[in-house]
Amino acid sequence: MALLDDDTASVKLSMSVREMSIKGVEPPPEYIVKEGIFGAIESSPEVGQIPIVDISLFSTSSQDSAKAQIELEKLRSALSSSGCFQAIGHGISSSFLDKLREAATNFFALPEEEKQKNPVEEKKKHFKVAHRTEGYAHEVKVSEEQVLDWAYRLTLLTFPEDQRCLDLWPENPNNFREVLHEYATKLNLMTAVLFKAMAKSMNLEENSFADQLFGEQALMTIDGSGITLLLQDKEAEGLQVLVDGKWVRVPIVPDAIVVNLGDQMQIMSNGIFKSPMHRAVTNTERMRLSVALFNEPDPESEIGPVEKLIDEARPRLYKNVKNYGLINYQCYQRGQIALETMKI
User: Which among 205, 226, 216 has a CA at the least distance from the CA of 309?
Assistant: First the structure.
């Protein structure tokens, strides 16, 4: 069943996505995407030329080499055009990524009653405070305009550690918590490298983005962010991005982690970097597993364009804003593009 919150306009759906999939039930209108502001619906878009960036060259020992400079130029070009790239050289072994996928697959293979052990009241509390569900749940319908995702997911806050709600972290499979903690820690380090490289690619102080956006209270959730780090399914494609007004498929690159720029980085870069519109499409032949980590600032942190990126030739394009995650959530439910509301 869909997660209910009696204090919102949530709508109860008669069956979960899993139940409808197993029984072969035709998806109800709430799940059907129609043409609109988010681009045309295309049945088979072409494979996109998504840049592959070797982030190992951004390490301290390599960052001043000629190869590193070439890779920095590639990074800036990617983020100024498509807004995404495939990161390799991240130092996470193929065997560990398989271990992570296995733990996630084993969790979703559990009986529904086992996955639903998360306390309902804990889920409601997190939804009210953070405007996102935590734990295992299907999507909540809160408005008539909203289109529901044909998916079921496990959403968890991973950092800061002292804000984790471990009551919602699965204990089955028995290695799930350990594997997730290790993966999130590795991506935390990877994120720090990426933010410094992004700043350096624009000839800024290396902490120009990290200090303003994340400080000590970065929120990292597995699932309106700064960046999203996505581990795709090993076989089933699903991610698509809008490039130059056209949807393209993001190919599967073995062991690569897809980096999607978020709206808040587009704001901070004063529009130089692009936050791509992206979507995930269903696969009629098999289930698709992905692990996404969103990195977003503390709601009370104010973000805005970096001052060194504002001049007469390129005036300020965006307002300063707090709690962009909430703004993004509200706009999404109304079928609006949150970034458009931030323009001056």
Answer: 205
In the numeric block, the tokens 């980085």 are attached to 265
Q: How many other CB atoms are there within 10 angstroms of residue 341's CB atom?
A: 13
Report the Cα–Cα distance between both ends of the chain, in Å, rounded.
42
How far apart are alpha carbons 168 and 175 in whole angstroms? 15
Q: Where are the beta strands (DSSP E) in the chain?
A: 52-54, 84-88, 135-138, 152-159, 219-222, 227-231, 239-243, 246-249, 257-261, 278-280, 291-296
pTM of the model: 0.89
CA dist 250 and 242 (Å) reads 10
Two tokens, residue 137: 């749940």
Dihedral sign, Cα of residue 9, residue 15, residue 20, residue 22 = positive
DSSP state of 28: P
Using alpha carbons, list the distances in angstroms from residue 60 to 57, 63, 197, 198, 305: 8, 6, 11, 14, 27
Q: Count CA within 13 A, CB hemisphere, residue 321.
A: 26
33-67 pLDDT, tens digit each: 776 555 556 667 899 999 999 999 998 777 778 99
Residue from 113, 197, 121, 190 nearest 159 by CA:
190
